[in-house]
Design brief:
The chain has three helices and 24 strands. A hairpin with a 7-residue loop joins strand 13 and strand 14.
Length: about 400
């Protein structure tokens, strides 16, 4: 049977529409999204925390003058090893030697004044010791009528004058002693200032900076030399606050230095800082080396892996399955009708094997979507596949 010629365009149009529909349903925007799925698994989880840190010195020292002055000499260079008590630098005394000499001269005069005051006290005491018995003897003789009242009164006056002279001498002696003590203190202060001009190392360490050169004028507290205790080098580690749960003192740490990319140095968490970085949202911890590596420089970057205690029989899913939708963390699951549904599920810790702990909200028999060809939305049609179009499992 031959079809009428005018039916041919209609049949061709129907064929084209059917072809476009087939393509749209198989690979177009209406096609189901190919996904890979996995089932949650119970396993022992070995969680870790990862962070970036810089090498610092726990004990660092800035050596400088306690008063303004000019640097006279610096005796060490950067990198020098110094011992405790070693002379590092010296400040110029300017007029300090003259001030010390003036203090010593004033102190010698104060000693002479004190000696004179002590002699006056002895003289006044001798006069009193002679006048008081005479006054008592003349008073007794007046009672017997051997001397006049005027003579007895005169001797009593001499005794009173002797006591007053002794009190005056003792006051002068106390003033001279106080003046001497003041000058002793001033001399000691001048001597301390002179001693502070010589800058000594408080500990055995390594010179890390030479901040001033001879001739430089410094203010009080400004450093001339900086040094560190090399045995106190540690790592200042920064860890994302969202991943820092479980961080505590004593946990083992594996450290990889930028200068030794192929080596791992063991250490442990020595301190977790109370003050976090609110700008970068990081928790800060200090990590010590079990054995400080040779030639470890300050400021060097390092990667650190903190190992947390093992969590036994934890419900886990691949970390790649985790997503955040509308501010909630969870996973996409395969629904009964072949559609994608987002299931909020709080997440615990993660490990290096790419597994994440699910704390609640996910059934053990759920089909969790790990990878998808494109971004999913609630109710989107999905089709499980062993691999995606790019070959990703």
């Amino acid at each position: 049977m031959t079809l009428p010629r005018h039916w041919l365009p209609l049949l061709l149009a129907i064929g084209l529409i059917a072809g476009f529909g087939y393509v749209a349903l198989r690979s177009g925007p209406l096609a189901a999204t190919h996904v890979t799925v996995a089932t949650p698994d119970y396993r022992d989880l070995h969680p870790i925390l990862f962070g970036i840190g810089t090498v610092e010195a726990r004990r660092a020292y800035a050596i400088g003058p306690t008063a303004a002055g000019r640097v006279q000499q610096v005796l060490v260079e950067v990198g020098d090893a110094v011992t405790a008590g070693q002379l590092l630098a010296e400040m110029s005394p300017v007029d300090l030697e003259d001030r010390v000499a003036a203090a010593q001269a004033a102190l010698a005069r104060a000693h002479s004044s004190l000696a004179a005051a002590e002699a006056q006290v002895r003289e006044a005491m001798s006069r009193r010791e002679a006048a008081e018995p005479n006054a008592r003897r003349f008073a007794a003789m007046r009672d017997r009528g051997f001397v006049t009242q005027e003579a007895a009164d005169a001797k009593q006056h001499e005794a009173n004058a002797a006591r007053a002279a002794l009190a005056t001498a003792e006051a002068n002696q106390a003033a001279a002693r106080q003046d001497r003590d003041r000058l002793l203190a001033e001399q000691a202060a001048a001597m301390k200032l002179r001693a502070n001009l010589r800058l000594y190392s408080p500990v055995a360490g390594i010179v890390t900076a030479r901040d001033a050169e001879p001739g430089s004028t410094l203010v009080a507290g400004q450093s001339v030399v900086r040094l560190i205790d090399p045995a106190s080098r540690w790592l200042r580690l920064r860890i994302d606050q969202a991943q820092s749960a479980g961080l505590r003192v004593g946990l083992p740490v594996e450290i990889v230095l930028r200068s030794h990319p192929g080596a791992t140095f063991p250490g442990q968490v020595a301190r977790v800082e109370w003050l976090s970085d609110s700008v970068t949202e990081e928790t800060i911890a200090q990590v010590t080396f079990d054995q400080v590596p040779d030639a470890l420089t300050l400021g060097e970057l390092a990667e650190a892996t903190v190992r947390l205690p093992t969590i036994a029989h934890a419900l886990t899913v691949p970390s790649a399955a985790l997503h955040r939708v509308a501010g909630q963390e969870g996973v996409w699951v395969l629904g009964n009708a072949g559609t994608a549904q987002f299931q909020p599920a709080p997440v615990g810790v993660r490990d290096l094997a790419g597994q994440a702990q699910i704390l609640a909200g996910l059934a053990p028999e759920a089909q969790v979507i790990v990878h998808s060809e494109r971004e999913l939305r609630p109710g989107a049609a999905v089709k499980p596949s062993p691999t995606l179009s790019g070959g990703r499992p």
